[in-house]
Structure of 2-deoxy-D-gluconate 3-dehydrogenase:
Amino acid sequence: MSLSFNLDGKVALVTGGNTGLGQAMAIALAQAGADIVVAGRSSAAETGEAVESAGRKFYEIKADFSDPSCVEGVVATTVEQAGRIDILVNNAGIIKRNDALDFTQDDWDSVMDVNIKSAFFLCQAAAKRMVAQGSGKIINIASMLSFQGGIRVASYTSSKSAIAGLTKLLANEWAAKGINVNAIAPGYFATNNTAALQADPDRNEQILGRIPAGRWGDPSDIGGAAVFLSSAAADYVHGTVLAVDGGWLAR
Ligand code: NAD
């Protein structure tokens, strides 16, 4: 088999693909040839325009992953509308900041429901279809806090450390069934998720000072990793957590 990053004929479901990293990955997958389904709570019209300009089909499903019971419906609708599901990008995520001494159960549960519980059950629902078709690619979005502790983000660190562990567990169970389960761990990217850090002059300086590349990541920096892990070029890549971090973890 020749090396291929081409995604022609594939269908990718990207959660939270209306903005930030999800939008950038959806557009990159479309440019590589995939039709795109975005599931999320906000309008993804801008992503849709970019996907259609790349010549691919675009579908949108309204879903709020703070209620994990919606995930089976999201995957079923993806298959009904787009015909199949070849790629799942579990990107939707939230963060809550507070000192661990003051952290509330609401801020724990809300982050865990979106970032890990919905993500797992999306993997399960997608994998049922992928096992039946004998192939599929799942990309979970991890974080530097899949490797490090962070500060004032107890539920976020717990959820992203869990994503790294879950990615490896699912790779163990599903690799032999033709499904590649991997994760991308973004470093510090300029999106809504990091708006508070970018706006805090001290944290901004600390973060920039530690990134060997010397700049925040731009969402467009993440597309190549998503295309690679979605493609036949990654057929023998299982259970890895690929950092796209400007060198942050190398420090
Ligand atoms: P963002 O806030 O711009 O995007 C988050 C996306 O998730 C949005 O589309 C939002 O609508 C969606 N979402 C959140 N809660 C949802 C819910 N209940 N139901 C449906 N959709 C929901 O942030 P981003 O930086 O683009 O984040 C994307 C992913 O990347 C997240 O998982 C985040 O944790 C991760 N990440 C981001 C960075 C970074 O530096 N920006 C670093 C590491 C990991």
About this structure: The chain has a mean pLDDT of 97. Strands lie at 11-15, 35-40, 58-62, 87-90, 136-141, 179-186, 241-244. The longest strand covers residues 179-186. Residues 11 and 84 are 6 Å apart (CA to CA).
